[in-house]
Amino acid sequence: MQLALRDNNQGPYFSRVLEYGRTEELLTDEHVAQIKSKAILMSLKLADKFYNKHKMHLLEHAAHDVIGVVSLGLVALTGEEPAGSVALLQTPDGVLKCFQKGWNMLTIVSKHMHGNENSLYGDINQLLLEKISTPPDSEIWLGWQDYQTALKDHHNQEATKVLLETFYAKVELDPLFSLGLESVLAEAVLYRIMFDDARVREDMKKRLRKIELNEKWFSIDAITIHTERALSHLPATLADTIREDLGKHFYQELLRTLKFAKKYRELALDDASPEKLERYEQKHGLQSVLLGWQDTIEF
Predict the structure, then answer these.
(1) CA 103/CA 43 separation, integer angstroms
(2) Is the alpha carbon torsion for 157, 162, 163, 164 positive or negative?
(3) What is the structure's pLDDT at 149?
C-alpha cells in the first residue's frame, strides 16, 4: 500500500495526517511504517472477506476502501484536527478504531438506501462505499461530503418514518418511491385540518365530498397553527429538525393546495366525471406543486 500524496490539502484525510506527522516531526519513519503495516493487514482481511486477496487489483481495491473508511472515522473521532489525528493513529489500535468508526457510520446511513439488498458489503450500500473508497494519491477526497449527504438523507428517512407512524393509518417507507419528508408532513397536516386530526388514509378525495370547508382554514396563520399542532406530537428535537428542513414556501403551497381542494370538491359535487377531475388535478399539479394532495386516482 502506497500512501503518497500530491496535494497536502486535498487527498484522503488518512494520507494527509501521515504527511502532516512527518512534516511536523510528530511521526518517525518507523511510526509511519507501523501504521501502514496495520492498514495493509486490514486491507488483506477486507479483500479476503469481500474480494480476493490473491488478485492484486482486488487487493488494491480493498486498500483504497481502507484508506477511505479510516479517513472517514479519523475525521469523525478527531474533528479533522491533524495533531489529534496523529496522536490517535500512534495508539496501538488507533487505525482499527478509525476503521470501525467509519464502517459503523456507513452502516447506519445505508439503512434506507435503495440497493442494499444486493450490496457486496452486507449492510453497507455499495455505491456509497465506492464514493468513500479512495486511492492514496488521489488529488481530491470527497468522502466526508458524500457521507454528510448520505447522513442528511438518513435523518430525513428516519424522520419520515416517525411521521408515518404518528399520523398515518398505513405505514410504508419505500426509499425508492418516497415523496420526501416535507410532502409526508404536508399530507398529514392537510388531512388533519379537514378531518379533525384523523390519521391519514387514502380516502381524502372521497371524504372531501362529505365535509364543509371552514373559511377560517384558508390563511397562512391558520395553516401554521395546524402544522405546529401536528409537530407538537413529535419529540422536540425531531420537530426542530423538520422545521429546519421545510421549504420557505411550505405554508403558501399548503394554502394553495387547500384552495385547490375547495374547487375540486365543488366539481365533484357537480358530478364531474373522474376523467374531468383527473385533468383538473393534473393541470394544477403541473402549474405548481400540490403539496400534501394525495397522489391517488379515483374511479
Answers:
(1) 13
(2) positive
(3) 94
How far is the C-alpha of 297 from the C-alpha of 74, rounded, in Å? Answer: 51
Residues with Cβ within 8 Å of 195's Cβ and at least 6 positions away in sequence, in order, are: 207, 211
- Reply yes or no on whether the pLDDT at 174 is more than 70: no
What gap in Å lies between CA 45 and CA 217, rounded to an integer?
62
For the segment 27-52, what is each residue's pLDDT rounded down to a tens digit? 999 999 999 999 999 999 998 888 86
Task: Report the distance separating Cα 293 and Cα 36, nearest Å.
Answer: 56
Interval 184-222: pLDDT, tens: 999 999 999 999 999 999 999 999 999 999 999 999 999
Q: What is the CA radius of gyration of the chain?
A: 26
Which pLDDT tens digit goes with each residue over 86-106? 999 999 999 999 999 999 999
- 147-156 LR contacts (CB < 8 Å, sep 24+): 147/72, 147/105, 147/106, 147/109, 150/106, 150/109, 150/110, 150/113, 150/125, 151/105, 151/109, 153/109, 153/112, 153/113, 154/108, 154/109, 154/111, 154/112, 155/241, 156/180, 156/181, 156/245
Q: Please, which pLDDT band fits residue 176 given cuts at 50, 70 and 90?
A: very low
- The rounded distance, in Å, linking the Cα atoms of 262 and 109 is 41
Alpha helices in 51-180 (DSSP H): 56-78, 82-90, 94-109, 126-132, 143-167
Question: Where residue 78 falls among pLDDT bands split at 50, 70, 90?
Answer: very high
User: Distance (Å, rounded) from C-alpha 108 to C-alpha 102?
Assistant: 10
| DSSP letter, residue 201 | -
Is the Cα torsion angle 200, 191, 235, 124 positive or negative in sign? positive
